[in-house]
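@channel sequence for tomorrow's demo:
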Amino acid sequence: MQQGSGFLTPRQRRLAWLGFLLTAVQAPVAAKLVPDGSWLFSLVVALMVATVIIADDARRRQPADASSAD
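structure tokens (generated this afternoon):
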């Protein structure tokens, strides 16, 4: 049984991880430095990128024949 392929290329997947890590680190730093709640935007972006990475990972874990049934 072969593994399915995700919708992100390996390069896009690496960039998504990099973007997630950068925004996840930037959010608490901005929370300390900025008095308003604008740091929440970084948190929301990090969560959106994490959702894309998780969805790509779930699609990669599906058997190859299961993705052709759609």
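heads up for whoever presents: The longest helix spans residues 10-33.
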